[in-house]
UniProtKB/TrEMBL annotation:
Segments forming domain Cadherin: 83-163, 164-272, 269-383, 383-487, 487-598
Record protein name field: Cadherin domain-containing protein
A cellular component annotation (GO) from this entry: adherens junction
GO BP terms in the entry: adherens junction organization; calcium-dependent cell-cell adhesion via plasma membrane cell adhesion molecules; cell migration; cell morphogenesis; cell-cell adhesion mediated by cadherin; cell-cell junction assembly; homophilic cell adhesion via plasma membrane adhesion molecules; morphogenesis of an epithelium
Source species: Cyprinus carpio
Gene3D superfamilies: Cadherins, TCF3-CBD (Catenin binding domain)
A matching Pfam family: CADH_Y-type_LIR
Secretion signal, residue range per the UniProt entry: 1-28
Amino acid sequence: MQIGSAVWTGLTVMTMLLLAQLDMGCCGMTLNSIPLHPASLRPLRTSVGASLQRHKRNWVWNQFFVLEEYTGDDPLYVGKLHSDVDKGEGKVKYVLNGEGASSIFTIDENTGDIHATKRLDREEQPYYTLRAQARDRATNLPVEPESEFVIKVQDINDNEPKFLDGPYNAQVPEMSPVGTSVVEVKATDADDPTYGNSARVVYSILEGQPYFSVEPKTGIVRTALPNMDREARDQYLLVIQAKDMVGQMGGLSGTTSVTVTLTDVNDNPPQSYQFAVPESLPVASVVAKIKALDSDIGPNAEMDYRIIEGDGLGVFRVVPDKDTQEGVIILQKNLDFEKKSSYTLKIEASNRNIDPRFLSQGPFSDTAMVRLTVENVDEPPIFSPLSKMVVSEAAKVGTIIGTVSALDPDSTNSPIRYSIDRNTDLERFFNIESTTGVISTAKPLDREANAVHNITILAIESLDPSQVGKGAALITVMDINDNAPVFAIEYETILCESAGPGQVIETISAVDKDEPPSGHRFVFSLTAETAGNMNFTLRDNKDNTASILTKRGGFQRREQAMYRLPVLIVDSGTPALSSTNTLSIRVCDCDLDGTPQSCGTEAFMLSAGLSTGALIAILACIIILLVLVLLIVTMRRRKKEPLILDEDRDVRENIVRYDDEGGGEEDTEAFDMVALRNLNAVRDSKARRDVTPEVPTLYCSRPPPYKITPDNGIFREFIWDRLKDADVDPSAPPYDSLQTYAFEGSGSVAESLSSLDSLSTDSEQNYDYLSDWGPRFRKLADLYGHSDSNI
């Protein structure tokens, strides 16, 4: 070994002792400090007074510290190993063994540089013990003994304080003095307590002032106000925070809750009122009435009431009843049994009219404690906060997606049954287990059809099915590559006959219904069958587009008017999907600017199977159909309007009222009354006089007179004849109508005595004999007798 020397100033005696120990045969060294200046990597020499001679140590390296949670992209440099045997000629290589060698720490076998390749966590492992050795590169034999060293993971503040015993419950007697100890909270921090302030915690109170305080260093919670009355308020909820970095900005924090209950002491006389209040009582309702006793009468007994203390301030108010002098307690806000089940009020009653002469005998007031207990009303179940659920599009039927939970807020704590509101899941994609609330798939999902499902979950109390709670579950369907790419649009590619070789005639792109996280990447190519065609080629532009180019010139639409080019499109999904899309290219005659003037339309149509003669035949058929339609419309317009034009004039359903005066004898000229009654009257088929018939009268012959038949046959024959007349009458309404006839039989020996027969123009009967019947028939003789002598 060689002996060297160097001058070091400022070294302590401890340093010399350390060097002396090294002289005694130590072959390696680790410095407990930050990495030294590169000058310290050279062989050490010392001179303090006289030169100290020692064997030169074989190894020189820095003390190694690695910062935890390093997030850089490059490996983290840890330190450098160097042996004095290494003269820089490349004959020595460095080997690293031990904890994390190769998997976490790597060494450059040429330079001895150590790097960390993974992010380290001090809380998982605070240090690593490794062994280093220098070997001859040619023989792989050790040139130095193996030496052990430690790489220590340096802590950063990456853990917040945690209250392992929280939340806390504590009790303290009411009316306790200020500073009374209530409970001690303790937070722990997983960071290194020996390094920096990462694990130094201070405590503070976030909620609970001004009633309580907490000591910053010890975490002891103490009372901060005197005379806290349990009857006014018996429970307090505190929120305590623990923050590391001694509470400085940038420190991490954790919180816990402390529920403090005031225990009772005997500080009230046995005078109070107890009332029960239904939870569902509406606002402004009377809750209770109290009355203070006063021996006076009249105005001297009038009282005022007011609430002076209690946890019901703002929830209740008290007003006096002028007639009874009672204090009426009225509800001001809605009650909730689950939030607060009881209220305590301290009410004061005082005389309204006080006589100054007796003030010394006062006070003229008294107080009473009123305790109001809220009666529970059954309420529907309440859901726990629902988290967003995620399911893969490829999930099989029955795959569990997540779980929902609901509780009965009432004291009965009824079991809950779950179901899905099918109005929010019409296609029944999901099922839910009725007792556990586990949601699973019931049908295959398609993200492209519906990416998000917002379903309503019903929670029903088993003991009271009328109590139903509702919660919303948001289910997101994650995409898989299950759709092949296709053309973005339907391309109509035009190829000019004047196009030359290598000309871009179309730029195509693709779309895919899938949505990969890294975006789409499409690859375009021609199919294997058309890759060697002599007309067109394809160039992938590497930007999800491709260009279609001509391979030759001299395209003629007379030779071929349409080309179909299959294009293969492949996406970048896993697994990759592809589709073949056909690009139609039409050959056109273009002007100098490349604008198409005429294309191979006729050739395209002929290739589709329709000839010119077929088109002419189709056109002729269409024209003939149009002519027939016009003729039918014209004939219908020439027909007369129907008898009844308006449904409102339907005689079957409406009564038409006229205020006109009757025409007397003129009415008989409009209607032939004889035809209604006389069997032997001429039964000519007559058209209605109020409307013009559409066709001429069909029957003009005179039917024979009715025969005298036994029983009711004469009436039957009369009705059938009238029915036939109505059936053949073209002016009759086109629907069933009520026909009314007045008919007189012909069975009398004296025949008919109806005067209607005299109205008939065909009647030749002589009534002169009436004048011979006496004065009773003289009037009839004057009416129906012959009066030719008077003409």
